[in-house]
Amino acid sequence: MMLLEATNLRKHFGKHTSVDGISFDIEQGSCVALLGPNGAGKTTTLRMLAGLLEPDSGLISFDGGQPGGDYRKALGYLPQAPSLYGWMSGQEYVLFAAKLSGLNSREAADRGAEVLERVGLKEHARRRISGYSGGMKQRLGLAQALVHRPRLLLLDEPVSALDPLGRREVMELLRDIRDETTIVFSTHVLHDAEEICDHIILMNRGRIAEQGPLASLRSQYSLPVIRLRTEKMSGARKWLEELASRSFVLESRFAGEDVMFNVNDVELARHTILSEAVSREIPLLHFETGSSTLEDLFMKVVGA
Ligand SMILES: Nc1ncnc2c1ncn2[C@@H]1O[C@H](COP(=O)(O)OP(=O)(O)O)[C@@H](O)[C@H]1O
Ligand SMILES: [Mg+2]
């Protein structure tokens, strides 16, 4: 079942188009990574989904309702740089968020205590937020976003600003929360997306470059590749460029002395490359056959 359907969303600021007509569905119960480099349009997209930013055009329909309907009560949102009030205690902050979301005092107190325990901050609930670590602050941010049991959780780069330990804390928490609610989280790190998500929406320059279930993107992009590196010399470079135009090479990518060829015939490619390297006396430093990965796709999209 679809929880949210976005159709042709567009947003510009001045002359700059930040989100350029994107459409996607969020399936109930899924964990979706909104993946893309800085400036791709992730935050703008999440703010539109959260109802904080009016799209220039396009429609958002939540839970089969009329496009444009108000579904904000069903949302939890954690902004990229949340402004937590350092002078408040964790407990005060969560109560404050609970009341803002419409819970009465009794519900707010019960539910606040429950989520603080849920995110592992029960013991620190009475401490001032200013004394929290980065990971603790982000977990408090998650508590705030979860307090009213949202059906959809929107998280903007929840782990990007954290050190490795804090990142681990929050990723593990997200892995648990994933079973309770539908999550969309943005990241510029493919690895984070692969770690906990089942769907990926890959954005670049305001557009969606690829989207779909992680597993099918993986198999779709698992194409035969050859990676090689030669010693730095002009003859080698010329030869590599020549190779790139052979019929067995579908696509090539050069990065300094490293070259990657997508090939349609690994055997032919291997034989040709190795025998030519010998006959032309080109010093090969590295030669590897394998499959392309999502990392290759990500680099290709980002580099484009
Ligand atoms: N309020 C704003 N005013 C002007 N430009 C903006 C504003 N918000 C975002 N942008 C621009 O829109 C583009 C996408 O930004 P953003 O959605 O924040 O990307 P991401 O979150 O993927 O890094 C960027 O080029 C950014 O500079
Ligand atoms: Mg952002």
Summarize the structure.
The protein is built from ten helices and 13 strands.
- Tally of helical segments: 10
Alpha carbon gap, first and last residue = 34 Å
Give the CATH superfamily of the largest domain: P-loop containing nucleotide triphosphate hydrolases
Which descriptor suits the 3D outline? elongated
Radius of gyration: 24 Å
Indicate the structural class: alpha/beta
Quantity of strands, as a count: 13
CATH topology of the largest domain: Rossmann fold
Which CATH top level class of the largest domain fits? Answer: Alpha Beta
Question: Which architecture of the largest domain would the CATH scheme give at its second level?
Answer: 3-Layer(aba) Sandwich
Bound molecules: adenosine-5'-diphosphate, magnesium ion
